[in-house]
Design a protein that fits this description.
Elements lengths: L1 H8 L6 H24 L2 H7 L18 H8 L2 E4 L2 E4 L14 H9 L3 H7 L2 H16 L11 H13 L1 H5 L4 H24 L4 H16 L4 H18 L11 H20 L6 H17 L17 H9 L10 E2 L4 E6 L2 E6 L19 E5 L2 E5 L9 H8 L7 E3 L6 E2 L4 H6 L3 E3 L4 E7 L3 E11 H4 L1 E10 L4 E10 L10 E8 L4 E4 L5 E5 L3 E8 L2 E9 L7 E11 L5 E8 L15
Antiparallel strand pairs: 1-2, 3-4, 4-5, 5-6, 6-7, 7-15, 8-15, 9-10, 11-12, 12-13, 13-14, 14-21, 15-20, 16-17, 17-18, 18-21, 19-20
Length: about 575
C-alpha cells in the first residue's frame, strides 16, 4: 500500500535509479520513526536502562576546546552552532523550545562538555554535573531533536569521554541514574543500526555503540558483535580512496575525530582494533590532506563549511605517514593539482545516492584555487545556521566556480512533498556520467573532464580542461559546450563561467580592460579570457564568523553557438611567459 502511494507521488521525468531507492528508504524511515517513538518513551527507557555497572575507561576527546567558552556556559551563555542563548538563573536550558533547531540539537549533543573539562576547575565540573543530571531528569522523550540518531550518538560519545569529570563527586544514586540513561541511549543506537537514517548518522551510531561496549566492560562476544557491525558500516560508507559516501570533505575529518579515540579505546582495553577500522583510518587520513588548502582549511564542496584548523592540525598529528596528499580520488570524485605554492581541488564526481544527498551541491567541475598567500578562487561554501534560503542559494551551480547553462543548475533538487519531508532537498537528477583524464609532466599538471548534467534539458555536454604550471605561477583553462553525441558540433544556449573570489582578494580593472587580483600583500595575478565577455559581479562567501560576507565574482558569458570554447588564464604578473604553456589550447 505504501509503495503504491509512493510510486503515484513520484515526480515525473526523474530516473527510476534515483527514485526507487528513495521510495524504499521512505518506507524504512516510517518504520523507524514509529520504533523510535517507542524506544525513547519513558517506559521503554526504564526497561532498557537496567544496567548498574560502572565505566571501566573513558575515551579521549581530541577536538579543540576553549576555557573562555567554559566561563560563558557557567554564566548561562550558550553559543552553539552559531546561535547564542542566555539561560536565566534557575532555568534549565533543556526546557527551551523556541531556540533554533541547530542550537537545540547541539545542546542535547553535549559536545560542549569538552570546554568545561579543559577549564579544570571545580566550578566548571559542577556545572557539567548539574547539566547532565538536569538532562537525565528532564522528560525529553517527546522531543525528536534530542533523540535523533546523530544527536544521541554525539551525546553518548561526549558522556563517555567526559564521564570522569561528572562521576567524581556525584552520589551513588546519581551514578546509577547516569549509567541507566547511558545504557538506554546505547540501546536506541543499536536499533538504529538496522533501521535508522542511513549515511553518517548510522556510522556515528556504530562508533558510539562500539565505544560504549568497550567502556562499560561488556562481554567479549558483544564487543566482537559491535566491531563487526561497525566494520560493515565502514565498508558501506568509506570509499576505497578514503572519502565518505556523502562526498562532503568535512565528513571525513568529523568521523576521524571520533574514530581515532575509538582506536585508542581499543588499545587501552588491550583489545586489537578490528582490521576494517584500522584500514579505514589508513585510507581516510590521506584524504584530509587531499582536501586541505594552503591555509589549513578544507575545500568547500558538498556541504563543507568553515573548518577548525585546530582540529585538522590535531588529526594530522595522528598521521604517521606524513606523506604528500593524493593526486586523485576517483571513488570520491575529486582531483588535486599542485605546483610550487599553488593548490587546485576539482570536483569530478556525481551526486551521492539520493537518500544521502540532502546537503550535496550541484558543483560538478567546480574548482578552488589557493596559494601560499591565501585563497584565490573559492565556492560560496555552506553554512546551515543561515537558514534554508541561503542553503538553497549555495547549493546551486551558480554558487560554484564552474559553468552554468541557461541560468540553470546542473542538478535538480527536490522542492516539496514526501521526499523533502523525510530526506530534505535531495538531488533528484544530475550528472550521471563524469569522464576524467589526467596528464602530469615535468612542466604541467592537467585534467580534462566532462559531465552530462545538461544533456537531458539542453542537449549539451560541459567539458573543462585545467592546466597548472609546475611552478604554480600560471593556471590555464578551457570550457567547452558541445552538442551531445557530436563532439565537433557546438551546442546552443548561453553560458556563464564563474570564478568566485575569496573576500580577502582585492580586484582592480587594468587600463586595457583586464582584471588584476591581489592575494595577501605579495601576489598579483592577471586574469585573461578569449571568446567571452568578461565582467565583475557581486558574490557572497558564507563561511566564517562574519558570514555571509560580500565578495566578487568574475563572470565569462556568451553564446554557446558563437563561442563553443572559452580559453582563460590566471597568471602571476611577475611570471608571465611569452607563449602558451605546452598542452594549452583547444582539446
Amino acid at each position: 500500500m505504501l509503495g503504491a502511494r509512493l510510486r503515484q507521488a513520484m515526480p515525473s521525468g526523474i530516473p527510476a535509479g534515483r527514485m526507487l531507492p528513495l521510495a524504499w528508504a521512505a518506507a524504512r524511515h516510517e518504520l523507524w520513526r514509529a520504533r523510535c517513538r517507542l524506544l525513547r518513551s519513558s517506559a521503554a527507557a526504564s526497561l532498557l536502562g537496567k544496567s548498574t555497572g560502572r565505566l571501566r575507561i573513558a575515551p579521549p576527546d581530541i577536538r579543540s576546546a576553549d576555557r573562555a567558552i567554559a566561563h560563558d556556559i557557567c554564566g548561562g551563555y550558550f553559543l552553539i552552532a552559531g546561535h547564542a542563548v542566555t539561560v536565566s538563573s534557575g532555568q534549565s536550558p533543556f526546557t527551551i523550545q523556541d531556540a533554533h533547531p541547530d542550537w537545540r540539537s547541539g545542546l542535547h549533543a553535549f559536545a560542549w562538555l569538552r570546554h568545561l573539562r579543559i577549564a579544570q576547575d571545580e566550578t566548571s565540573a559542577q556545572r557539567a554535573r548539574d547539566l547532565i543530571v538536569e538532562w537525565a531528569a528532564t522528560n525529553t522523550a517527546s522531543d525528536p531533536l534530542a533523540w535523533s540518531v546523530e544527536t544521541t550518538a554525539r551525546r553518548v560519545i561526549s558522556w563517555l569521554s567526559h564521564a570522569p569529570m561528572f562521576l567524581d563527586g556525584v552520589s551513588t544514586e546519581q551514578h546509577a541514574q547516569f549509567i541507566r540513561s547511558l545504557t538506554a541511549q546505547v540501546a536506541l543506537l543499536e536499533h538504529a543500526l538496522f533501521g535508522g537514517p542511513a549515511g553518517k548518522p548510522r556510522l556515528q551510531a556504530a562508533i558510539a555503540v562500539t565505544m560504549a561496549t568497550l567502556c562499560l566492560g561488556a562481554k567479549s562476544s558483544r564487543i566482537d558483535k559491535a566491531g563487526r557491525r561497525l566494520g560493515a558500516e565502514i565498508d558501506r560508507q568509506v570509499y576505497g580512496d578514503g572519502g565518505h559516501i556523502s562526498r562532503d570533505p568535512s565528513a571525513v575529518a568529523d568521523l576521524l575525530l571520533d574514530i581515532l579515540p575509538l582506536r585508542q579505546t581499543y588499545l587501552a582495553t588491550s583489545i586489537d582494533p578490528p582490521a576494517r577500522l584500522m584500514n579505514a583510518i589508513e585510507r581516510m587520513m590521506p584524504m584530509v590532506r587531499f582536501f586541505r588548502h594552503r591555509d589549513g582549511t578544507l575545500a568547500h564542496f558538498n556541504g563543507t563549511g568553515a573548518s577548525s584548523t585546530a582540529d585538522l592540525a590535531t588529526l594530522l598529528a595522528y598521521d604517521d605517514a606524513h606523506g604528500e596528499p593524493l593526486r586523485s580520488a576517483p571513488h570520491s570524485g575529486y582531483e588535486r593539482l599542485t605546483g610550487l605554492g599553488a593548490t587546485i581541488i576539482l570536483d569530478t564526481g556525481r551526486a551521492p545516492p539520493a537518500e544521502l544527498s540532502g546537503h550535496a551541491h550541484a558543483g560538478t567541475l567546480a574548482f578552488e584555487f589557493s596559494t601560499h598567500s591565501g585563497h584565490l578562487i573559492v565556492n560560496c561554501g555552506a553554512n546551515h545556521r543561515l537558514g534554508s534560503r541561503w542553503a538553497e542559494v549555495c547549493r546551486s551551480t551558480a554558487a560554484h566556480s564552474t559553468a552554468t547553462l541557461n541560468d540553470s543548475s546542473s542538478a535538480r533538487f527536490a522542492h516539496a512533498g514526501w521526499i523533502t519531508d523525510r530526506f530534505g532537498r535531495v538531488i533528484l537528477e544530475g550528472p550521471g556520467r563524469v569522464r576524467t583524464e589526467r596528464a602530469d609532466t615535468s612542466q604541467t599538471h592537467s585534467i580534462s573532464a566532462r559531465h552530462d548534467g545538461y544533456v537531458a534539458r539542453f542537449g549539451t555536454v560541459h567539458q573543462r580542461k585545467l592546466i597548472l604550471a609546475a611552478d604554480g605561477t600560471r593556471l590555464d583553462g578551457e570550457d567547452s559546450f558541445l552538442a551531445h553525441g557530436n563532439a565537433e558540433e557546438a551546442a546552443g544556449g548561453r553560458f556563464a563561467i564563474r570564478f568566485h573570489l575569496h573576500p580577502a582578494v582585492e580586484v582592480t580593472t587594468t587600463q586595457v580592460g583586464g582584471l588584476q587580483l591581489r592575494v595577501g600583500n605579495r601576489e598579483v595575478w592577471g586574469v585573461f579570457a578569449d571568446g567571452a565577455v568578461i565582467t565583475l559581479e557581486d558574490s557572497i562567501f558564507v563561511n566564517g564568523p562574519e558570514a555571509p560576507r560580500k565578495t566578487k565574482q568574475i563572470v565569462l558569458s556568451g553564446s554557446c553557438h558563437e563561442h563553443p570554447s572559452v580559453h582563460w588564464s590566471f597568471i602571476r604578473s611577475d611570471h608571465r611567459p611569452p607563449a602558451p604553456l605546452p598542452g594549452d589550447g583547444a582539446s
